Amino acid sequence: MSQHWQCSVLQAGKLKLDGGSMFGVVPRPLWSKMTTPDDRNRIELQTNCLLLESEDRRVLVETGCGDKWSDKQRDIYGIERRTVLDALKEQNVDPESINAVIVTHLHFDHGGGLTRFDGEGVPIRTFTEASVHVQCQEWEDALAGKSTMNGTYLRSHLDPIHSCVQLTDGECEVFPGISVLPVPGHTWGQQAVLVETLTGIVCFPGDLMPTRHHVGAPYSMGYDMMPFQNMQTKRRLLDRAADESWILVLDHEPDTPVVTVHRTGEWFELEPVRNFQGV
Q1: pLDDT for the residue 274
Q2: Residue 86's domain is classified under what CATH number?
Q3: Contact 233, 191 (CB under 8 A)
Q4: Does residue 212 belong to any structural domain of this protein?
Q5: Per the domain annotation, does 236 fall within a domain?
Q6: Residue ranges making up the domain that contains 265
Q7: What Cα–Cα distance (Å) separates residue 10 from each residue in 108, 249, 257?
Q8: Share above pLDDT 90 across residues of the chain, in percent, rounded to a whole number
Q9: Is the dihedral of CA 27, 32, 35, 39 positive or negative?
């Protein structure tokens, strides 16, 4: 029997990344018309997460950057002094009431909040009662540091959660009404999260399409391991989202993260959903 979830969008903190890296092959004269870079060529992003609630379970999708950062790192990446714990507190949700965490992938801006420092500076689990769900491919790649970027798969985020990781393998149901779908491109093992709500499917596609400005076919990130595959995967997901009237929640969109998808000629456009109620 299908289960419907209450869905809330959480903001786990802003960060800033290089605009050229965020838009890959798209030249600055184009992307800078959509989002204005600062004097260090960085654009402002958000780390959006989802809180999913049923009668007997709370599930968190993504955890943001967390708080294990030096002042130098905060300056480089513009990491706000705010975490998913602040967002949960605003919802009157105790971290110990989170039963499971699902991450699309394990880069620092998605999995950093899985752990925190204790009083002695040792990284420990943030969500002590939660299992952590990630694709087997992503977990293996994260442990191996399989990335062109230095410092994106950090052992301080990974080692403390080792005992509570539950690996997914391909498209599958994690809980009744919550399933995951492989969306390779940004990483080999990235997964999207699909949630059944009373108003239809809510999809969290991870870094397949991090902001509303990445809807275009060539608008992939320089951080993507497989940019051509990312474009193909994005087309398939947008096609299905348009056909099935999904709502998408974009992980790094700072202004209008909740959108719907519509066809326009041979491609797609996004329409913001204002005042998303999350039912």
Answers
A1: 84
A2: 3.60.15.10
A3: no
A4: yes
A5: yes
A6: 6-272
A7: 17, 11, 10
A8: 95
A9: positive
189 HSE (CA, 13 A, CB side): 22
Pair of tokens at residue 241: 């989202």
Average pLDDT on 167-187 reads 98
Over residues 100-147, the pLDDT tens digits come to: 999 999 999 999 999 999 999 999 999 999 999 999 999 999 999 999
In a domain, 1, yes or no: no
Nearest to 10 by CA among 96, 101, 133, 74: 101
Q: Structurally, how many domains does the chain consist of?
A: 1
Position 209 scores a pLDDT of 98
pLDDT value at 212 more than 70: yes
CA distance 278 to 52: 9
The answer as to whether 193 is a domain residue is yes
What is the DSSP-derived secondary structure letter of residue 132? E
Residues 6+ away with beta carbon under 8 Å from 105: 111, 134, 135, 138, 142, 186, 187, 189, 190, 191, 206, 207
pLDDT mean over 205-225: 97
Block residue for tokens 């709500």: 197
Burial class of residue 275, CB neighbours in 10 A (0-12, 13-18, 19+): exposed
Task: Give the count of beta carbons closer than 10 Å to the beta carbon of residue 189.
Answer: 25
Q: From CA 102, how far away is CA 63, in angstroms rounded?
A: 9
Is the pTM higher than 0.85? yes
